[in-house]
Write a structure and sequence with these properties.
The chain is of the alpha+beta class and 200 residues long. It is built from eight helices and four strands. A four-stranded antiparallel β-sheet has the order 1-2-3-4.
């Protein structure tokens, strides 16, 4: 039998008003089509488990996203819009953005069949372009040897997370706050997303 958890109830309850009906519809359809599915919170968002991680959904400020984890599902869904948002359905802002109940259940069963048959999912890693350390962060690190050492010891992916977080700040005061937070976390040896590590 499948398993529902209260953490997913709480996630949906805390989602923006437009998102809750979308998340509920996704959840109910998955449980209806895959009675053995179980729920979990991983990386801070609801996941569905069926012979491994099966699918996940999330609500953001202005859209929702849903995706099957098996790479074989990318080509099966004609509505795939991978450049808009993660998952196979792009940015969803209303129930109209979901496939029909029949189509959705068909896709769920196709994903189940891949899992049942033990078909391995292929993960294609896109090579990310080189990143630049923001000038303000370079200057701040020059004055904080301990933070600079931690930053230099981090993997390129962890360095990128800090650099992109600072670079995407639109206001000077926001950028400065992020630099100060970065220095504090680096001094403690923490990565940018340390709050989510160890939760999956």
């Amino acid at each position: 039998m499948g398993k529902r958890i209260k953490d997913v109830d709480a996630y949906i309850a805390a989602a923006p008003d437009f998102a809750a009906p979308i998340l509920v519809r996704i959840r109910e359809t998955i449980h209806a089509a895959c009675p053995d599915v179980e729920e979990a919170i991983k990386w801070g968002v609801p996941h569905f488990l069926y012979k491994g991680i099966f699918a996940s959904m999330a609500a953001f400020k202005q859209h929702c996203a849903f995706g099957f984890w098996h790479s074989g599902m990318n080509s099966l869904n004609k509505n795939a819009k991978p450049d808009e948002a993660w998952g196979q359905f792009g940015r969803m802002t209303s129930l109209k953005d979901l496939p029909s109940a029949a189509d959705f259940k068909r896709l769920i069963r196709q994903a189940m069949k891949l899992a049942d048959n033990g078909v391995k999912s292929e993960r294609v890693r896109k090579k990310k372009p080189p990143f630049t350390v923001p000038r303000e962060l370079r200057a701040a690190l020059a004055k904080h040897p301990k933070a600079r050492q931690a930053f230099e010891n981090f993997s390129p992916s962890h360095q990128r997370e800090y650099c992109e977080w600072i670079a995407e700040a639109k206001r000077d005061d926001t950028r400065e706050k992020r630099i100060q937070t970065t220095l504090e976390w680096l001094t403690q040896g923490k990565s940018r997303n340390w709050k989510y590590e160890g939760t999956c």
